[in-house]
Specification:
CATH topology: SH3 type barrels
CATH architecture: Roll
Distance between the termini: 25 Å
Number of helices: 1
Helix content: 10-25%
CATH class: Mainly Beta
Structural class: alpha+beta
Order of helices and strands: HEEEEEEEEE
Strand order of the largest sheet: 6-5-4-1-9
Shape: globular
Strand content: 35-45%
Largest sheet: 5 strands, antiparallel
Length: about 100
């Protein structure tokens, strides 16, 4: 049990650091399609499910290359921040928002 809590504490510290660096996002939509490359027609990597926490690795316009830090989905992929009329992922600006 102690190992589990130590791991959770480490994850929280990493998430806190990413939020401070403006590099932490969460999936706001029920799911979010991830692609292998930034091109919209590239192969699908999978889908991140709602509330998955994502680390921003790279940004090009309205596309993000992300790594899953917590939740369900592929290890990495390219996602769209928005689709017409809908926000798909949102930036977490404060770790306090993780517990809201």
């Amino acid at each position: 049990m102690a190992e589990y809590w130590a791991g959770q504490d480490q994850l929280f510290r990493e998430l806190e650091h990413l939020a401070g660096q403006q590099q932490l996002w969460y999936v706001k939509a029920p799911s979010c399609l991830a692609r292998m490359d930034k091109a919209f027609g590239s192969a699908e990597a999978g889908r991140f499910l709602e509330f998955a926490l994502l680390e921003e690795l790279e940004r090009e316009g309205s596309r993000l290359r992300v790594r899953r830090r917590k939740g369900v989905g592929p290890e990495e992929g390219w996602v769209s921040i928005t689709l017409p009329g809908k926000e798909i992922v949102a930036k977490i600006e404060s770790v306090a928002r993780l517990w809201e």
